[in-house]
């Protein structure tokens, strides 16, 4: 469903250029939850921006459902680490924003927003502003704002990293429910090995720049109940940790 083929991404600044990706290819199937993990600065956010249509590759091709991606598409939801909520709009206003483009009438909009507020358990925050919300509530609003557009693909860039441990766990559970209910394909960048194993049906470990796929771990038990406490979960986190630490050692040798 999502594919990028032979993509180069080069940032050019004045006289210097940085090659973040060189002939990079990736395929993500419909319904998959792909977890991306890799050394800091290796290009994870850049990859999401490219898939979102915000940063076209310098060379190569990105396709979603067989169509070239050359600009952001309405069916792709992009959730950033810092939530990207507008502080001058209420929760309702933030969620309504995307609907303007869809041309629904006021009553349809109202129903859609209320259903999502209910599903995400933030009905009581409807008239509040972002600075009156907890981190977890802001993250739920950011999710609602994306879901209201009926996406088929969600890109998430370290979405839970600034949440406390308990809130993060409840957001992870919520994401699993939402993925199921809305039949979403998800690409999740995370720096947490546990999170990658808990949520990703496939886990990709990236190398430092130019980023390549250092290893790929199939993780079909992701999202199943009781997985976090199981022996298999522990083994999978060990596999990811080993691959990741090889990358960090390689990077430190380059840095020396
Ligand atoms: P990650 O998300 O894995 O931490 P990024 O995708 O943000 O990494 O960045 C990858 C590399 O590209 C980094 O070395 C970063 O400094 C560089 N980079 C990111 N954005 C730009 C930009 N707009 N101009 C120049 N270099 C950039
Ligand atoms: Mg990043």
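-> sequence recovered:
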């Amino acid at each position: 469903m999502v594919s990028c083929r032979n993509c180069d991404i080069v940032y050019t600044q004045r006289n210097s250029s940085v090659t973040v990706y060189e002939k990079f290819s990736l395929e993500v199937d419909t319904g998959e939850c792909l977890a991306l993990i890799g050394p800091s600065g290796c290009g994870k956010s850049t990859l999401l921006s490219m898939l979102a249509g915000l940063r076209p590759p310098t060379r190569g091709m990105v396709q979603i459902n067989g169509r070239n991606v050359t600009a952001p598409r309405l069916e792709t939801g992009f959730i950033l680490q810092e939530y990207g909520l507008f502080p001058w709009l209420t929760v309702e206003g933030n969620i309504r924003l995307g609907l303007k483009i869809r041309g629904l009438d006021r009553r349809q909009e109202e129903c859609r927003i209320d259903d999502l507020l209910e599903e995400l358990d933030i009905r009581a925050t409807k008239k509040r502003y972002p600075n009156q919300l907890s981190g977890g509530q802001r993250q739920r609003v950011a999710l609602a704002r994306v879901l209201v557009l009926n996406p088929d693909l969600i890109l998430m860039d370290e979405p839970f990293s600034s949440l406390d441990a308990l809130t993060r766990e409840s957001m992870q559970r919520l994401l699993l429910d939402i993925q199921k209910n809305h039949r979403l394909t998800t690409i999740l960048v995370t720096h947490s090995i546990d999170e990658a194993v808990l949520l990703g049906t496939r886990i990709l470990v990236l190398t430092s720049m130019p980023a390549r796929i250092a290893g790929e771990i199939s993780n079909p038990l992701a999202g199943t109940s009781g997985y976090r406490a199981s022996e298999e979960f522990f083994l999978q986190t060990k596999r990811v940790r080993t691959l990741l630490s090889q990358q960090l050692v390689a990077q430190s040798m380059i840095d020396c």
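Strands lie at 2-13, 16-28, 33-37, 59-64, 67-68, 76-79, 153-157, 185-189, 202-206, 213-218.
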